[in-house]
């Protein structure tokens, strides 16, 4: 049992034009579950100016396993790159268990791991590990293309857990032209590497009829083809287990994007992530000592609702947060002021569960305003050394990038790898920064950022927001009445 939208997984693709107001009405037809829809990569109160590939999914529990679909913001005018047609390639994970049973295990005492994925899906189709395509109803994914054409492939990482490497046998490079909804300068790669939460746009040329000869099917990765039902004797493509160098310090914006210099940075915050044991043998992830799950907010309500209802007292205390790794001990949230330019350094630290000192990789995603990704590396972040690597390099704006695993284990208190971002704090609101692996989120690898003061956050008047502040409010609507709404654009 899992959650679907309009009867399908992936959910239907949504295409909306840039610069226009589009209505998307979300109905929850599940009598026994809450749901949310997260418009991944978009700051919902700001206008979108360019084409991009986004996606939308439930942000509740493990519903996003199946409740996920592409969201394409179409260009306002001709795109900056020429291509004949496009295809969406959305990766998903298949687990041979219900969402509820996996989730129960993740929060159980003692902890029960979900196990690894049973199959990586392309656009909802795939064959589970140990099964053979073409038998017993197992269908292999097929991407239909025509000869002599250039395709814009829109890759969407909507797996729960898996990092996916992807290639097509006997073809040339993919040319990356976009990442996380932002156009980039062209950058060639031999194969794709996509973590959960990430999107990439690439140009891909198919062969001409003459080049094809009699061969019209090509293996995607391995084990897969609609006519070929057994794996090739030798893998048709060579990938690398070294994941941490893929397209690092490489993707630059097509147009200048106001990248902040080191001297413009006003504050550096570290988020130190580690796996820990909690009471009763459960296993959690904590960020600088704070495990954040749905019940962590002290008010028991969403932060925005609490801010509207309680006013400035619900804003996390900035001074106390600075004295406590960046997060306020009362509200369990990370405050920032509008106008700050943050440098956020995300660290891996070895697990202290059963003294195994293990490490994992984590695709970190930020809601709201995109960030400038200033790179990654093993060990401890060295600002001066990194500044040399940034010379002549202008990072593209991103919303999901990997904190990698460089070694399997290290000594207990070491800093075992980093990812760093710069963020211009300009969008007032409550935004999450979290690992995008669904299992890790449920185990607590999430942070909540409150950006701006009360007046800035509550700039939509209370009477206009009132319908959002409780279940069944007039902003929700139902079968018998249309929700009331506030125009965000003139
Ligand atoms: Cu993670």
TrEMBL record:
This is L-ascorbate oxidase. SUPFAM superfamilies: Cupredoxins. NCBIfam families: ascorbOXfungal. One of its GO terms (molecular function) is oxidoreductase activity. It comes from Cryoendolithus antarcticus. CDD domains: CuRO_3_AAO_like_2 (cd13895). InterPro entries: Cu-oxidase-like_N (IPR011707), Cu-oxidase_2nd (IPR001117), Cu-oxidase_C (IPR011706), Cu-oxidase_fam (IPR045087), Cu_oxidase_CS (IPR033138), Cu_oxidase_Cu_BS (IPR002355), Cupredoxin (IPR008972), MCO_CuRO_3 (IPR035666). Belongs to the multicopper oxidase family. Keywords: Copper, Metal-binding, Oxidoreductase. Residues 3-53, 87-222, 324-450 form the Plastocyanin-like domain. The lineage of its organism: Eukaryota, Fungi, Dikarya, Ascomycota, Pezizomycotina.
């Amino acid at each position: 049992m899992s959650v679907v939208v309009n009867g399908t997984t992936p959910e239907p693709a949504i295409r909306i034009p840039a610069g226009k107001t589009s209505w998307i009405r979300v109905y929850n037809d599940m009598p026994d579950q809450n749901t949310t829809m997260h418009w991944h990569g978009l700051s919902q109160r700001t206008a979108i100016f360019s084409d991009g590939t986004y996606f939308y999914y439930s942000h509740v529990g493990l519903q996003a396993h199946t409740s996920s679909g592409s969201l394409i913001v179409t260009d306002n005018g001709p795109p900056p790159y020429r291509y004949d047609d496009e295809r969406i390639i959305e990766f998903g994970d298949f687990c041979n268990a219900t969402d509820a049973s996996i989730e129960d295990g993740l929060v159980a005492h003692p902890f029960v791991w979900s196990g690894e994925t049973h199959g990586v899906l392309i656009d909802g189709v795939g064959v589970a590990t140990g099964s053979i395509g073409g038998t017993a109803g197992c269908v292999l994914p097929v991407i239909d293309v025509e000869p002599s054409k250039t395709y814009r492939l829109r890759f969407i990482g909507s797996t729960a857990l898996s990092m996916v490497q992807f290639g097509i046998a006997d073809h040339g490079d993919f040319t990356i032209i976009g990442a996380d909804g932002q156009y980039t300068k062209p950058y060639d790669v031999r194969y794709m590497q996509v973590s959960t939460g990430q999107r990439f746009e690439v140009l891909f040329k198919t062969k001409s009829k003459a080049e094809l000869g009699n061969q019209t099917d090509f293996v995607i990765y391995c084990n897969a083809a609609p006519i070929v039902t057994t794996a090739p004797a030798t893998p048709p493509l060579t990938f690398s287990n070294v994941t941490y160098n893929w397209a690092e310090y490489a993707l630059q914006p097509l147009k200048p994007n106001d990248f902040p210099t080191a001297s413009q940075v006003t504050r550096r915050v570290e988020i130190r992530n580690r796996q820990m044991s909690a009471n009763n043998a459960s296993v959690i992830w904590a960020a600088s000592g704070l495990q954040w799950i749905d019940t962590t907010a002290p008010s028991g309500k969403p932060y925005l609702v609490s801010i509207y209802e309680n006013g400035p007292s619900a804003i996390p205390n900035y001074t106390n947060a600075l004295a406590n790794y960046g997060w306020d001990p009362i509200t369990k949230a990370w405050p920032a002021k509008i106008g700050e330019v943050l440098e956020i350094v995300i660290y891996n630290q070895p697990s202290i569960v059963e003294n195994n000192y293990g490490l994992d990789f984590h695709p970190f995603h930020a809601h709201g305003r995109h960030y400038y990704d200033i790179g990654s590396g093993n060990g401890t972040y060295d600002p001066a050394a990194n500044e040399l690597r940034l010379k002549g390099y202008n990072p593209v704006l991103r919303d999901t990038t990997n904190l990698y695993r460089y070694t399997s284990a290290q000594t207990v208190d070491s800093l075992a790898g980093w990812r760093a971002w710069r963020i211009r704090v300009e969008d007032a609101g409550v935004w999450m920064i979290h690992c995008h692996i669904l299992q890790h989120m449920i185990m607590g690898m999430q942070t909540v950022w409150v950006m701006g003061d009360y007046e800035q956050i509550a700039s939509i008047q209370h009477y206009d927001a009132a319908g959002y502040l409780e279940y069944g409010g007039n902003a929700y609507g139902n079968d018998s009445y249309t929700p009331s709404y506030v125009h965000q654009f003139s």
